[in-house]
Amino acid sequence: MVKRIKPFLWRYGPLLTTITIFILTYFIGSRMYPAMQKPQVFFNLFINNGSLLLVSIGMTLVILTGGIDLSVGGVLALTTAASAALLRDGASPAIVLPLMIVMGIGFGGLLGIIIQYLKVQPFIATLMGLFFARGMAYIISLTSVTITDSVYKKLALTPIYIPFFQKTYIYLPTLVAPIMLLVAIYLLFFTRFGRTIYAIGNNEQSALLMGLSVSRTKIGVYAFSGLCSALAGIVFSMSLLAGYGQFATGMELDAIASVVMGGTSLSGGVGNVIGTLFGVLINGTIVSILQFNGTLSSWWTRIGVGVLTLIAIGIQSLFHIRKNHS
Amino acid sequence: MKNISVLLKRFRESRLFWPVIAWVLILVFDAIVEPGFFELGIIDDPVYGKHLYGNLIDVFRNGAPLMLVAIGMTLVIATGGVDLSVGAVIAISAAMGAVLINPALGNELITNDILTKNATNTPLPLIILAGLAAGTLCGLWNGLLVSRARIQPMVATLILMVAGRGIAQLITNGQIMTIYYTPYFWFGNGYILGLPVSVYIVALVFVVAWVLVRRTSIGLFIESVGINSKSSFYSGINEKNVKLIAYAFCGFCAAIAGLILSSYVHSADGNNNGLNYELDAILAVVMGGTLMSGGRFSLLASVIGALVLWTFTVTIYTLGVPANALLAAKAVLVMLVIFLYSDYSRKWINRIFERKGSQHGEAN
Known about the structure:
Chain A is mostly helical. Chain A has 14 helices and four strands. The relative contact order of chain A is 0.20.
């Protein structure tokens, strides 16, 4: 029995660490503020962090190939600004929503092509994407554009009551992130695409020599991240019913922090999206603890996230060292 | 004639070629579109005396912090790492300076008339030392995480990047602190012999860094660690300390930049001091031809890279483009850089030059 448990622990150690940290944080929070024990507070984590979760899912796939995508926050802001402007000018949501999704996929795919065929470092290429997308959002509108479209409002404010819990609900757009999480899990663990992602992350050269479609997969991964960012933009614009180029500044780094906290190695090939989910939840828990406290200032969020990232990484690097020794 | 072509070839193959070409291109663009760009005048300032003014001076004065950060970042990137925390370190050192100046330190109620008194709580040298020490400490922390704890550089510095702005706000108690102490403004606004003080600071730091890396063996160590950290370790280089020095120096440079920036804008704001400097600095270094994977580097090329970025920024402003649209313009610049630096275009340009060269040889 012990023989079986030990490898399991070593294999899933980083993931279990993240989950433990999340449970501990939430537990401490709910001991300090009993109101946090309400199930609604837990579901609020998903309502408030839907777009961060979406962005982080895309980021996880990119980081698994050994790349990085800094453009996510920019694409998110561009999506909100573009959709708000289109809706203001009288376009129908039935056109706007698919258009935004196509734009996100196209933007990500283009970055992937630049990275793959021009041999540009992902950091630089996606940095350009960030500047470009945010700049475009500002060119569309220098001020915040409110969304008054009735379909958008209806979609945004439809509550879905959770069975078995009383008076507990989420909104319709909240569902997008969990669905994409399932899609990402399916892609990563049950398709050739996912296998190739891990192979590229571990060693791109040997993946290429094995005859895997490296370039197609890499472009696909960036396109997927673009799709996630566009969806995040839609969710974001629905929750605020506005579009603005300044939305979600620095979200790319929050997403990277969440991914890293979730046990994904930045050098690629190690990690999974389930860890990312808990990374995002930890981030959200810290924010809601601070909100419950009310007297602590917002900068403690940043320090708290930093310290927890440090702890998570410290424990994970112990696992990696141990793995390398054995 | 042959000498010139040899010199030309050497220049074309040197690291300085691309950034200088980019800079010249932007300046030529300015000369055509905005002929007034190069105008220099002498103004008699009541506070700082006679000095030069004009767009070019602005480029150097406003670009000084970025140049400083780029110098530090070059060394870090050359070791194969990256420092994402420079923006936060700028905010920390700025906050440090502002808090020490603030005459109402502690829990005293800060009223306007205490603040507007042209007074300081601590002597100026101590303020500078404290700011620099804070920055260097941040750099050391990054260096320890990277070299001793073996955390990937991007993650290790990400921690301070996220937490650093929080720490800066903690220092200033969440307020945007306005500074009312005239001697402190000298760093960002003063002039020596008609040129901005910050230019001299950049020159000084550059010379110190250059002597450090080119006249001692540290530069070679940094390059060898960047090319292959493991083999440098086996050949007897203390790669841990080399990395530590690089990060500490980067923190030091960012701290100077923070002092200059806060003295320039007369305030310290934990959220906005040095915003996006990490990305701009990395961009400047990459424009200078240093690879993100580490190895060979050139300090001068990075400084010129920073100069290119700021000349571009000032150009965009003189054209009357709104500040917010600057990002889109910057994206176009990065796109150009990407295309110019990609293997295809390099080969293509080399081929053009070589064909010309061979024809030249035949003619001789």
